[in-house]
Write a structure and sequence with these properties.
The complex is a heterodimer of chains A (355) and B (541). Chain A is an all-alpha fold. In chain A, 72% of the residues lie in helices and 0% in strands. The longest helix of chain A has 43 residues. Chain B has 541 residues and is an alpha+beta fold. In chain B, strand 8 and strand 9 form a beta hairpin. In chain B, the strands form 5 sheets. In chain B, strands 4, 6, 10, 11, 12, 21 and 22 form a 7-stranded antiparallel β-sheet that branches. The two termini of chain B are 63 Å apart. The chains are: A mainly alpha (355), B alpha+beta (541). At the A-B interface, helix 8, helix 9, helix 10 and helix 11 of A face helix 2, helix 3, helix 4, strand 4 and strand 8 of B. Bound molecules: protoporphyrin IX containing FE.
Amino acid sequence: MSNTAWETLSNQAVGAAGIVYFVALVVYLAEWAALRQPAAERVLVGAGSAEASDGAAAPEASSPGAAAPRAARVAFLGRLGLLLTAIACAAHFVALVGRGMAADPNRVPWGNMYEFTLSGTFVVALLYLVLYKKFALGWMGPLVVGFVVATLMVAVIWLYDAVAPLTESLNSPWLVIHVISAVIATGAFSLGGIVSIVYLVRMRAQRRAAAAGTELGGWLARVPQLDALDRLAYRVHAFAFPVWTFAVLITGPIWAHEAWSRYWNWDPKEVWAFITWVVYAGYLHARATAGWKGRKAAVLALVGVATLWFNFIGINYFSTTSQHSYAAERVVDATTGAAGQVVEATIGSVAEPLF
Amino acid sequence: MSTPPRPDAARRPGELTARELLRWAWRQLTSMRTALLLLLLLALAAIPGSVIPQADVDSLAVTRWKDEHPKLTPVYEKLDLFSVYSSPWFSAIYLLLVLSLVGCIIPRLFVYYRALRAQPPQAPRNLSRMPVQASYTTDLAPADVLDRARTVLGRRHRLRVAGDGDDYVAAERGYVREAGNLVFHLSLLIVLAGVGMGSLLGYQGGVILVQGSTFSNNLTQYDDFKPGGLFRQGQMKNFRFSVDDFSIDWLKDGPRFGQARKFEAALTYRVGKGEPREYGLKVNHPLELDGTDVFLIGHGYAPVITVRDGTGQVVHTGPTVFLPRDASFLSYGVVKVPTAKPGQIGLDGLFFPTFEMVDGNPVTVFGDDLNPTLSMLAYTGDLGLDDGRSQSVYVLDKAKATPITQEDGKPLRVDLQVGDTVELPDGLGSVTFERVDPWIRVQISQTPGKEVALLGVILALIGLCCSLFIRPRRVWVRAVPVGHGDPGDPAAAGEGTMDGTGGTEPMTTRVEVAVLDRSGNGEMDEILTTVLSQLQEASQS
Ligand code: HEM
């Protein structure tokens, strides 16, 4: 296959993956909707709170014996959603392979922001599928798929970039190791962030339900208990944190040393990777600190994921001084930094040269 | 190291209260809460440095920023906002963190040491009150059950030495978790030491070398040089290298049109009195010479310009380094010829690697030197080189110089392509553009302690993984005989029936198992099930 054929294949696969993810999302939402009914029913019979208004379908559904088919329908929709997610994930994988094969010379598919986003969302979907059984993640389906679809859309619309050879400083074996670990950690942190959001949402809903004297209904009732959510979030973060440590504090500096001669330069990208690291270290501490467990820890996890994504997207747009090539094409150059200083000292602003 | 900020109250009444207060402050400082807050503070404090240009990273951007914000500049300077990461306030935060860490971790070392030497603790009196527990009955005698339990648990746990009459087995595992935690935190100190060594003992220097030139490693040869605080000249290694050739691969099509790749400088180097060797210096492939690293970090063009003065004498010839202004390699440079007669000659202007007129504007359409063209202005008069002040070679001092003009009074443009010569008016001389040589910019640095820092992070990572993935736990198995006729429900068997009641009846054994998670993150029910099934399997075989 020619390079352009690979590139076309990749683009088509992204489209296909997006569509199938979207269908999966719709199926999951149908599952949600099906779940809401019994809750509404319960409410109608019980305290009769504000939720009753949601129970339009409830009267007919409440006929005896309706519960069993409904449960079957919910289970079916859940399985269908999972199957679709798996198919989409496979197409997603094809898209990644296509990007790598389309480049000349062939390379790993994370040479620019579009590719990084493609890879990161793939990791989210894949991790979800891998962990689905072990942690009974059925309840998480709509959130994960929703996140992946939304992020893919952003990638396609705003971040798309044609396949191109790597800039010279990216052309290193460390690219493979450094970026793959960064991508995996980013995917895992994102997944952990989703769990932490659900933790906070459930906590709030529980408090409200308790105040109103009702039970948790609908989808939230299916979400694991708070302590199980907290443990799940911890496990995902505990996996991601060492991977992130490896990416930004080991392979990053080694590579920076080879390419730019300084292993740590306080470049904005590095600063924010460090901030993310410190915030997540804070999260792990928080879980072991009285008074910080639970809610505050979950909030910290969200701060962490915000810094992570800000670093990836924000810094590229706001910072002009980053050496990291994902940020514009400034790559290798601290260059004539010094010779530039000589100039700058007297004639002011001669823009620095690029490599 | 600095002591924690001590409230004035510490000096009030008696000595005792002062000591108490100190102890209180120390306890506060070394508490988990303080560590957490300091961590968050560190994250927060790191932010300004990513928004405001930093002198260490991009001094040019700092100058530009200062020009644009004359009012804010003094305030920012006072707050060290142009060098956040070496500022006293940033240092204060991480030093406090280090202090807190040492204060927190050192005592834990002793606790851990004692825990390692101690035995797993006794079984709680009543296992059925433990949060994660189960029980069952079996026909095996208690002693046999306990034997089995010892074998099953003994494989992966440390067992408490059985005392006389103990009716239980106590087991514990996962000691490595705390070891990992301690190693992780202590390794952070190693990293800090490594980084500190680098910034105190190391140096970084840069130099531009035109193809064909030779560099020998002493201070005078550097264009710029940043030594660490404890740098000594004696640590500079004796080596030299020449730049024999520089090659680039320019992309002539595709989405990255105009981007350059495969930069490679062919060097011949010699360390001390050693044999000359060759090396292809590339981006991402530094050359290490006796502990000093040489990196290729930039490149550009040096037009070879020859100037003859009014007497026809060659007064200047050779490659002149032009500095690229942007990615197109449009470059700026200066020629100074103070020895020319009858008047000094100065030139400054632009170099276009691939010159073209686009809509009446001179531009360079490509970075490669496909149509190299010089466009400069000429000056004569006093170039300010005689008063002994040092001057940048990249700047032409025009204070006392005047532009050389044509007959129509306009400044003379010296526009040249390779091989061209322009005569200067008034018998001042001529300028010839001979050819273009490439130059490279290399960074030469010593970073002592980088291996220490690397070792530190690797140790930290290993410790971290142990700390995060090892789940310490304790397991107790108690076996007590009960009468055979007891109701099947083991829970109802209760404490009261410890010693079998019906003396004549055959005995069975009630086995209680409890698991205690010490990390708070384990899936204890799973583990309990595993232990139970292992015990029962063992008892069936
Ligand atoms: C330099 C900054 C620090 C960083 C980056 C850091 C990072 C971490 C990380 C990632 C963990 C998680 C490991 C685990 O959950 O077992 C952890 C745990 C821990 N840290 Fe720190 N830490 C720092 C400073 C401190 C300080 C100053 C203290 C003491 C006041 C401290 C005490 C602890 C303790 C006791 C644990 C174990 C918590 C547990 O048992 O789960 N750390 N730290």
